[in-house]
Protein backbone atom coordinates (compact mmCIF):
# COMPACT_ATOMS: atom_id res chain seq x y z
CA UNK A 1 0.00 0.00 0.00
CA UNK A 2 1.26 3.48 -0.85
CA UNK A 3 1.12 5.93 2.07
CA UNK A 4 -0.81 9.18 1.51
CA UNK A 5 1.39 12.18 0.76
CA UNK A 6 2.40 14.37 3.69
CA UNK A 7 0.87 17.85 3.27
CA UNK A 8 3.16 20.72 4.21
CA UNK A 9 2.21 24.42 4.32
CA UNK A 10 4.67 27.31 4.80
CA UNK A 11 3.37 30.57 6.30
CA UNK A 12 4.64 34.16 6.36
CA UNK A 13 2.95 37.56 6.55
CA UNK A 14 2.63 38.52 2.88
CA UNK A 15 3.32 35.18 1.13
CA UNK A 16 5.60 36.95 -1.35
CA UNK A 17 9.04 36.59 0.28
CA UNK A 18 9.76 34.01 2.99
CA UNK A 19 6.97 31.44 2.61
CA UNK A 20 7.14 31.13 -1.22
CA UNK A 21 10.91 30.82 -0.80
CA UNK A 22 10.42 28.04 1.78
CA UNK A 23 8.02 26.31 -0.62
CA UNK A 24 10.52 26.60 -3.50
CA UNK A 25 13.50 25.45 -1.43
CA UNK A 26 11.55 22.44 -0.11
CA UNK A 27 10.29 21.52 -3.61
CA UNK A 28 13.85 21.81 -4.92
CA UNK A 29 15.07 19.44 -2.23
CA UNK A 30 12.27 16.96 -2.97
CA UNK A 31 13.09 17.02 -6.69
CA UNK A 32 16.77 16.41 -5.94
CA UNK A 33 15.90 13.43 -3.74
CA UNK A 34 13.18 12.07 -6.08
CA UNK A 35 10.53 12.46 -3.38
CA UNK A 36 8.00 14.78 -5.08
CA UNK A 37 5.22 12.18 -5.05
CA UNK A 38 5.40 11.81 -1.28
CA UNK A 39 4.51 15.40 -0.43
CA UNK A 40 1.95 18.09 -1.20
CA UNK A 41 3.62 21.49 -0.70
CA UNK A 42 2.07 24.97 -0.58
CA UNK A 43 2.48 28.37 1.06
CA UNK A 44 0.16 31.15 2.26
CA UNK A 45 0.17 34.50 4.05
CA UNK A 46 -1.54 35.53 7.26
CA UNK A 47 -2.32 38.83 5.44
CA UNK A 48 -4.14 39.22 2.13
CA UNK A 49 -2.54 42.35 0.60
CA UNK A 50 -0.58 40.53 -2.09
CA UNK A 51 -3.05 37.82 -3.09
CA UNK A 52 -2.50 36.63 -6.67
CA UNK A 53 1.00 38.07 -7.00
CA UNK A 54 4.13 36.07 -7.79
CA UNK A 55 6.94 36.04 -5.24
CA UNK A 56 8.83 39.33 -4.80
CA UNK A 57 11.29 39.79 -7.68
CA UNK A 58 14.24 40.23 -5.27
CA UNK A 59 13.34 36.93 -3.58
CA UNK A 60 12.97 35.19 -6.96
CA UNK A 61 16.31 36.57 -8.18
CA UNK A 62 18.14 35.43 -5.04
CA UNK A 63 16.59 31.96 -5.34
CA UNK A 64 17.38 31.70 -9.09
CA UNK A 65 21.05 32.40 -8.29
CA UNK A 66 20.94 29.14 -6.30
CA UNK A 67 19.09 27.30 -9.08
CA UNK A 68 15.81 27.41 -7.16
CA UNK A 69 12.54 28.33 -8.90
CA UNK A 70 9.71 29.95 -6.88
CA UNK A 71 6.47 28.94 -8.60
CA UNK A 72 3.83 30.18 -6.18
CA UNK A 73 1.22 32.94 -6.35
CA UNK A 74 0.28 34.59 -3.07
CA UNK A 75 -2.84 33.48 -1.27
CA UNK A 76 -4.20 34.06 2.21
CA UNK A 77 -4.30 31.38 4.89
CA UNK A 78 -7.83 30.14 5.58
CA UNK A 79 -9.42 27.93 8.19
CA UNK A 80 -9.53 24.92 5.87
CA UNK A 81 -5.74 24.93 5.78
CA UNK A 82 -5.62 24.03 9.47
CA UNK A 83 -7.41 20.78 8.67
CA UNK A 84 -6.19 20.26 5.10
CA UNK A 85 -2.48 20.16 5.92
CA UNK A 86 -0.50 17.85 8.19
CA UNK A 87 2.29 20.29 9.04
CA UNK A 88 2.29 24.11 9.14
CA UNK A 89 5.65 25.90 9.39
CA UNK A 90 5.65 29.57 10.38
CA UNK A 91 8.44 32.04 9.65
CA UNK A 92 8.22 34.30 12.72
CA UNK A 93 6.55 34.76 16.11
CA UNK A 94 3.73 36.91 14.69
CA UNK A 95 2.85 34.24 12.11
CA UNK A 96 2.98 31.56 14.81
CA UNK A 97 0.60 33.52 17.06
CA UNK A 98 -1.78 34.21 14.15
CA UNK A 99 -1.96 30.57 13.05
CA UNK A 100 -2.31 29.25 16.60
CA UNK A 101 -5.06 31.74 17.29
CA UNK A 102 -6.97 30.61 14.18
CA UNK A 103 -6.49 27.01 15.27
CA UNK A 104 -7.95 27.76 18.72
CA UNK A 105 -11.06 29.30 17.16
CA UNK A 106 -11.54 26.39 14.81
CA UNK A 107 -11.29 23.08 16.54
CA UNK A 108 -9.63 23.16 19.93
CA UNK A 109 -7.96 19.86 20.66
CA UNK A 110 -8.96 18.35 17.31
CA UNK A 111 -6.71 15.48 16.31
CA UNK A 112 -7.17 16.46 12.64
CA UNK A 113 -5.50 19.82 13.15
CA UNK A 114 -2.13 20.41 11.48
CA UNK A 115 0.95 20.37 13.67
CA UNK A 116 2.03 24.05 13.85
CA UNK A 117 5.72 24.79 14.41
CA UNK A 118 8.29 27.54 13.83
CA UNK A 119 10.30 26.87 10.67
CA UNK A 120 13.56 27.49 12.50
CA UNK A 121 12.85 24.63 14.92
CA UNK A 122 14.12 22.41 12.07
CA UNK A 123 17.42 24.27 11.60
CA UNK A 124 20.52 22.18 12.25
CA UNK A 125 23.28 24.73 11.56
CA UNK A 126 21.62 28.01 12.58
CA UNK A 127 20.25 28.75 16.02
CA UNK A 128 17.59 31.44 15.70
CA UNK A 129 13.92 31.77 16.53
CA UNK A 130 12.71 33.56 13.40
CA UNK A 131 13.27 33.85 9.67
CA UNK A 132 13.51 37.67 9.52
CA UNK A 133 11.30 39.63 7.15
CA UNK A 134 13.58 40.84 4.28
CA UNK A 135 10.96 43.06 2.60
CA UNK A 136 12.28 46.48 3.66
CA UNK A 137 15.97 45.60 3.70
CA UNK A 138 18.80 45.01 1.22
CA UNK A 139 19.88 42.08 -0.90
CA UNK A 140 21.80 40.41 1.93
CA UNK A 141 18.51 39.93 3.81
CA UNK A 142 17.17 37.75 0.99
CA UNK A 143 20.37 35.70 0.95
CA UNK A 144 20.12 35.20 4.71
CA UNK A 145 16.50 34.04 4.36
CA UNK A 146 17.63 31.42 1.83
CA UNK A 147 20.53 30.29 4.04
CA UNK A 148 18.10 29.73 6.93
CA UNK A 149 15.51 28.05 4.73
CA UNK A 150 17.99 25.65 3.11
CA UNK A 151 19.08 24.58 6.59
CA UNK A 152 15.52 24.30 7.94
CA UNK A 153 14.13 22.49 4.87
CA UNK A 154 16.86 19.85 5.05
CA UNK A 155 16.10 19.29 8.75
CA UNK A 156 12.36 19.24 8.10
CA UNK A 157 12.68 16.66 5.33
CA UNK A 158 14.82 14.45 7.54
CA UNK A 159 12.22 14.63 10.33
CA UNK A 160 9.28 13.97 8.01
CA UNK A 161 11.01 10.99 6.42
CA UNK A 162 11.63 9.51 9.88
CA UNK A 163 7.96 10.05 10.79
CA UNK A 164 6.63 8.37 7.65
CA UNK A 165 5.69 4.71 7.46
CA UNK A 166 8.26 3.00 5.18
CA UNK A 167 7.09 1.58 1.84
P1 LIG B 1 6.73 37.78 3.66
O1 LIG B 1 7.25 39.25 3.31
O2 LIG B 1 5.88 37.90 4.88
O3 LIG B 1 7.99 37.05 3.89
O4 LIG B 1 5.98 37.32 2.43
C1 LIG B 1 6.50 40.41 3.34
C2 LIG B 1 5.89 40.86 2.21
C3 LIG B 1 5.18 42.03 2.21
C4 LIG B 1 5.08 42.77 3.35
C5 LIG B 1 5.68 42.33 4.51
C6 LIG B 1 6.38 41.13 4.49
N1 LIG B 1 4.37 43.99 3.36
O5 LIG B 1 4.42 44.69 4.37
O6 LIG B 1 3.73 44.31 2.37
Summarize model confidence as the mean pLDDT.
Answer: 95
Compounds present? 4-nitrophenyl phosphate
Number of helices: 5
Q: Topology as H/E string?
A: EHEHHEHEH
Radius of gyration: 15 Å
Largest sheet: 4 strands, parallel
Q: Give the strand order of the largest sheet, numbering strands 1, 2, ... along the chain.
A: 2-1-3-4
Percentage of β-strand residues: 5-15%
Note the gap between the termini.
Answer: 7 Å
- What level of helicity do the residues show? 40-55%
Outline the low-pLDDT stretches: none
Output the structural class.
alpha/beta
Total count of strands: 4
What is the overall silhouette? globular
Q: Quaternary status of these chains?
A: single chain
Verbal overview:
42% of the residues lie in helices and 13% in strands. It has helices at 18-33, 57-65, 79-84, 93-106, 139-163, and strands spanning 6-12, 39-45, 87-90, 115-118. The radius of gyration is 15 Å and the shape is globular. Strand 1, helix 1 (18-33) and strand 2 form a beta-alpha-beta unit. The mean pLDDT is 95. It is an alpha/beta fold. The protein has a 4-stranded parallel beta sheet with strand order 2-1-3-4, sandwiched between helices. Helix 1 packs across helix 5 (139-163) and helix 2 (57-65) packs across helix 5 (139-163). The chain has 5 helices and 4 strands.
Amino acid sequence: MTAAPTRVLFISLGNICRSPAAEGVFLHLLAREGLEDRFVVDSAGTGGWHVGRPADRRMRAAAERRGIHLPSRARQLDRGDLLGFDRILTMDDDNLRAVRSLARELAPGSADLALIEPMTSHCRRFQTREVPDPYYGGEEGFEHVLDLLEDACAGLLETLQQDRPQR
